[in-house]
Amino acid sequence: MVSRFEHPAGGYKKIFETVEELNEPLPATVTGRIPSFIKGSLLRLGPGLFEVGSEPFYHLFDGQALMHKFDFSNGQVTYFRKFVKTDAYVRAMTEKRVVITEFGTCAYPDPCKNIFSRFFTYFKGVEVTDNCLVNVYPIGEDFYAVTETNFITKVNVETLETLKKVDMCDYVNINGVTAHPHIEKDGTVYNIGNCMGKGASLAYNIIRIPPKQKDKSDPIEKSKVVVQFPSAERFKPSYVHSFGMTENYFVFVETPVKIHLLKFLSAWSIRGSNYMDCFESDEEKGTWIHIARKHPGEYIDYKFRTAAMGLFHHINCYEDSGFIVVDLCAWKGFEFVYNYLWLANLRANWEEVKRNAMIAPQPEVRRYVLPLDPYREEQGKNLVSLPYTTATATMRADGTIWLEPEVLFSGPRQAFEFPQINYKMNNGKNYTYAYALGLNHFIPDRICKLNVRTKETWVWQEPDSYPSEPLFVQNPDGVDEDDGVIMTIVVSPGAQRPTFCLILNAKDLSEIARAEVDIMSPVTFHGMYKP
Fold it and tell me: For Fe cation, which residues are the binding ones (predicted)?
């Protein structure tokens, strides 16, 4: 699963460049045959505008949200894209400058304003960005483009029009929600975010948004907090990007990457500061893993501990014989991986890109196993009795349970990231296959498949081609977990038609079809297939 290619020509720099939106869909040139069950839309989000006038955005997560769509009907394919008309985007366009502070780019006060109006703005506090460049998912019958703040943006997935900005704070006690909800078969949405807990300390809330309502009311209005996880540190919550969910439990991994809240509140108003300035790593704490029951929502106070790691994406979690198995894409150590995702790093020459990745945290696919009855053995003994894993859990004298993972895949500077599974069939259940985007020194250059039981791997890769997160689509006639296709958007900057939707057979990652368009596209992060 290691990359077979180097990128000395630096074609990857092109996926971090501004593009224009389209006025109407472009027809794609199809080679191969689009499977008959693919009739719908592939929706993806990512940054599309990397500067406003003469002011650049600095971080990978700052560019303004661009929504992409490949439409499939009767073997015909079109490509369309529009900028999401967020407040951040519209105001930047109007004032021709960065108006809202983004993840790694701070907005300076309007130079035209005098000291008095600046003084009053200061007391209004920070305007949080609504730049929804990370993902899109359904709530009830609606679709929302999202980032990780309290704002989500309702979009029309047919026309790609922007409908309305929704503030989750109006409905639940939450400071922000992740771009990685879990969605059940009936349409119930679960998500997690930082919140104010009891006694002015920070905590994490899991929220539940019900499925579409019979009376056609908005399910978001009926959002509820299901359960609260405590924070290891009172004023410094960890950065949370995703969480795990089995049939009966939630799994929350609290990493050493902390949000320094006081810094966050003070720094912003006083000087040019951004979100990235407010993270710090706790070198002592290591990683805490928490579990909670789902029905009824209640926190279970088991003190699972493991070595420091960074975590963005859970792959899957499931229960088996009194254990919870937790598979995730880990980054070793306590340093924040986002420190390596500045656009200047990603746009550097290949040798420089490789040098940066040498000192960055190393990626690893890991399986942790959490005993649901950790008190049944004496101290110091391995509690994990599942026959198929080498992961261990040991009760220590202080009452903490130390976890050591089984490594499912590890390659130096070769990440198995943006993972996907056959979600409909296997989310929260025992499973066999995971698919991912392969990062080569942080540059996306292949699609990977992993058998988590046997560790067998498959790879799709072409020179100077930069794919995105692979989405699995089940063949409706299929019975196996991997009966279906993988869909990804690939950018080949040197090609005649540089953007294409690639359809692979999920069994062996062999190519089934591609639909190419004569237009350049930037990087996308997450998305969905809408049948």
Answer: 180, 241, 313, 526
List the one residue out of 482, 487, 491, 480 whose CA is nearest residue 513. 487
CA distance readout (Å), 463 to 7, 219, 412, 426, 490: 8, 46, 20, 33, 12
Query: Is the pLDDT at 23 greater than 70, yes or no?
Result: yes
H helix and E strand count, the chain? 6, 36
3-state DSSP helix/strand/coil % of the chain, to nearest 5: 15, 40, 45
Contact 243, 316 (CB under 8 A): no
Q: Is the pLDDT of residue 466 over 60?
A: yes
pLDDT tens profile 29-77: 999 999 999 999 999 999 999 999 999 999 999 999 999 999 999 889 9
**Bridge-based pairing state of the strands 400-404 and 298-306:** parallel
> Does the annotation place 313 within a ligand binding site?
yes
CA dist., res. 345 & res. 347, Å (int): 6
Which of the 8 DSSP states describes residue 211?
A: -
Residues forming a β-bridge with 307: none
- Residue 245 to residue 434: CA distance in whole angstroms: 16
Q: Is 241 annotated as a binding residue?
A: yes
- Give the Å distances, CA to CA, from 379 to 370, 382, 398, 400: 15, 9, 10, 10
How far does the chain reach from its first CA to its final CA, in angstroms? 30
Pairing verdict, β 526-530 and 40-49:
antiparallel
Collect all residues with Cβ–Cβ distance below 8 Å to 301 and sequence separation of at least 6. none
Can you give the pLDDT at residue 197?
A: 86
For residue 504, list its beta bridge partners: 486, 511
How do residues 486-502 score in pLDDT, each as one tens digit? 999 999 999 999 999 99
Tokens of 227: 């359960």
Q: What pLDDT score does 122 carry?
A: 54
**β-strand 162-167 against 287-293: which pairing, if any?**
unpaired
Each as own residue / partner, the long-range contacts of residues 232-236 (CB below 8 Å, 24 or more positions apart, any chain) are 232/285, 232/288, 233/202, 233/258, 233/282, 233/285, 234/201, 234/202, 235/201, 235/202, 235/260, 235/261, 235/262, 236/202, 236/260, 236/261, 236/280, 236/282
Does 526 appear as a known binding residue? yes
> What pLDDT is stored for residue 136 in this prediction?
98
Position 248 pLDDT exceeds 90? yes
Alpha-carbon torsion, ordered 507, 509, 512, 513, to 10 deg:
140
DSSP 382-407: B----TT---EEEE-TTSEEEEEPEE
